[in-house]
Amino acid sequence: MDKRIGFIGAGQMAEALARAFIAQGVCRAEQIFATDVVGERKEVFRSFNTKPVDSNTEVVKSADAIFIAVKPQYVSVVLREVRPHLEDRHTVVSIAAGVTLQSLKDAAGEGVRLVRVMPNTPCLVGETAAAMCLGGKADDSDADLVRRLFEAVGKIYRVDEKLLSAVTGLSGSGPAYVFVMIEALADGGVRAGLPRDIAQQLAAQTVLGSAKMVLETGKHPGALKDMVTSPAGTTIAGVHELEKAGVRAAFINAVYSATQRADELAKLGA
């Protein structure tokens, strides 16, 4: 890729993205520029041969694709600071939760290519489930650029902005739901007599393997569940307990409740 990548904010998510871009051959280390108010974070970026710089403006002048990776309350401040230096060549990518395209446009100005991305924390291990929407002057070329970048750390889908709260409720908050499930499965294993370390590894690997089956077979999760549940067997006995406890409804409600909260926060930040 001939694009230079900039990060305003060099936290863990930015680091994970930068390392993945280099590891996957998307760009070279010397094509990545970053800055952060915390000096130690710039030194982390220096340690894998990228180019830390001293100001937000330097990032903008040095890069073509600019990731806004600061806390949501600072996004508008940062964009207003660099606004005079934004040009048509720039694609501005915000990964801040709850900051709308309109807020980005108000801060960055008219005529800026804007892409809002909702990643999730598995980005840190190269397995993000993300979604993006376009604003300002962004077009399909910007979408293709962002897709290529995020495919280095997982999967990304293009949606209308009105659906980003649902993305937040599902994949943004979803890792927490899965961690709760893994913890509970491991507790069940311990209750049945397994050592804690083995129970946790079995639970996590079971979730990983099951997710890969859904993604790689393309089969409906219900069909895959039916493959495991033989008549009068152990699995259907366990599934029956899950249904009695309302686990399915609890997951649906969790996603919906988180979506509603994301909508509320987006309105507060608009």
UniProtKB/TrEMBL annotation:
Q: Where does NADP(+) bind?
A: 8-13, 69-72
Q: Does the keyword Cytoplasm apply?
A: yes
Q: In which pathway does it act?
A: Amino-acid biosynthesis; L-proline biosynthesis; L-proline from L-glutamate 5-semialdehyde: step 1/1
Instruction: Give the primary localization class.
Output: cytoplasm
Give the highest taxon in the source lineage. Eukaryota
Q: Cross-referenced Gene3D superfamilies, in alphabetical order?
A: NAD(P)-binding Rossmann-like Domain, ProC C-terminal domain-like
List locations, semicolon-separated: Cytoplasm
Per the record, the GO terms for biological process are: L-proline biosynthetic process
- List of residues binding NADPH: 56
Which key words are in the record? Amino-acid biosynthesis, Cytoplasm, NADP, Oxidoreductase, Proline biosynthesis
Q: Where is the Pyrroline-5-carboxylate reductase catalytic N-terminal domain?
A: 4-98
State any single GO MF term: pyrroline-5-carboxylate reductase activity
Domain spans labelled Pyrroline-5-carboxylate reductase dimerisation = 161-265
Signal peptide position in this chain?
A: none
Known EC number: 1.5.1.2
State the HAMAP family in the record: P5C_reductase (MF_01925)
NCBIfam families the record matches: proC
Task: Give the protein family.
Answer: Belongs to the pyrroline-5-carboxylate reductase family.
What is the protein name given in its UniProt record? Answer: Pyrroline-5-carboxylate reductase
Which organism is this protein's natural source?
A: Chlorella sorokiniana
